[in-house]
Amino acid sequence: MSEQVPLLDDSGWDWEPAPRHPDALRAVVERIRENDDWLIVTHERPDGDAIGSAFAMAHVLAALGKTWRFVAEGPIPERFHFVPLSEKAYVDVDHVDRKFKHVIAVDCADMARFAYAQKFIEDGADIVNIDHHYTNPMYGVAAWVDAEAAATCELVYHVARALQVSLTKELATCLYTGILTDTGGFAQPNTTREVHQITAELLASGVQPYDIAEPALESRTWAQMRLLQMALNNLTVSSDGKYAIIYVTQGMLEGAGCTDDDTEGLVGFTRSIDTVEVGALFRETRDHRVKVSLRSKRYVDVSKIAQAFDGGGHTRAAGCTVSGDLTDVIDAVVEQIERALEEAKR
Ligand code: AMP
Ligand code: MN
Ligand code: MN
């Protein structure tokens, strides 16, 4: 075993809040210190936390004089193009010509979440796993999984601090993006004192909240608005008012001039209904599958519903992708939602 890395230092970071699992953080930090050439990966259809934590790691590695590549599972959505370095993600196989021995996976509940990037990972490669999904099986040679963290960016903040990397505006922008989006603009139940302590410190680097909130959360393209109009037309609520569903077909996406990523945020409208506990969005994919997004408010664990269909996520936000016709998948998932609501009554 190598020498323990000191976690406290005099580099100017305000040492509040403390990381919840210092030993796991230490293991991650040691791996990063010891190796110089890294592949960064994150989950498919990357969200603000996936993108923020991946590029924050890139900044950390660059600041330490290490080399990095980031292979994304799909294009970086336009609303995240403001994230520093975001033009440097590789979504095209031709641009990465080798395999990596050292990999950092951020915001990935399991290894299937970075299936595409496997091509660039050597057999038996060392994987460092930094995540906040409680369903994470702790894969990798070093795993820091903290389900109490609102965002993976909250954990990468601690990694950056432990490695004594300067908190530049660029690094802070990446971290702020993940925390802002995974807390739904500091509004979801995962918003904690630590979240506000960390973001307060990020602002000290010169980050302007609206410069991030406007593109990441508020802004919609006209095509996305047209899709919203269409989707709200099929929004339905159960007779008891406890769950609501909304769907998007390939035809609707084409009609609105949208891509698959343009459904982001739609599921929120199901949960906005005052009586609703569980909201679900169903999106037809091009390969005869249905991407399901699940949200809950106070007492239903939607990750359990997602897991029944080989998906995963958090208690209040989860997802899965299910093979079959849209109507069949809706029926099957609704059955599980009704069961979960019924069980919650007992
Ligand atoms: P989404 O509905 O895609 O916005 O996902 C909601 C949450 O569930 C996010 O934290 C995702 O990372 C997670 N999630 C979505 N799909 C899956 C999956 N197939 N496996 C594990 N986690 C998932
Ligand atoms: Mn994510
Ligand atoms: Mn996340």
Q: Please, could you describe this protein's structure?
A:
With 346 residues, this protein is of the alpha/beta class. It has 2 domains: 196 residues, inorganic pyrophosphatase (n-terminal core) (Alpha-Beta Complex); 124 residues, Diaminopimelate Epimerase, Chain A, domain 1 (Roll), CATH 3.10.310. The chain has 11 helices and 12 strands. A 6-stranded parallel β-sheet has the order 3-2-1-4-5-6. Strands 7-8-9-10-12-11 form a 6-stranded mixed β-sheet, sandwiched between helices. Helix 1 crosses helix 3, helix 4 runs antiparallel to helix 5 and helix 4 crosses helix 6. It starts with 21 loop residues before the first helix and ends with a helix. The model has no long low-confidence stretch (mean pLDDT 94). The structure holds adenosine monophosphate and manganese (II) ion (2 copies). The site of adenosine monophosphate has 12 residues, from strand 11 and strand 12. One manganese (II) ion (MN) binds next to helix 2.
Chain-averaged pLDDT: 94
Shape: globular
Order of helices and strands: HEHEEEEEHHHHHEEHHEEHEEH
Number of strands: 12
* Count of the separate structural domains: 2
Q: Helix tally? A: 11
Q: Termini distance? A: 50 Å
CATH first level of the largest domain: which class?
A: Alpha Beta
Name its key features.
12 strands; alpha/beta; Diaminopimelate Epimerase, Chain A, domain 1; 6-stranded parallel sheet
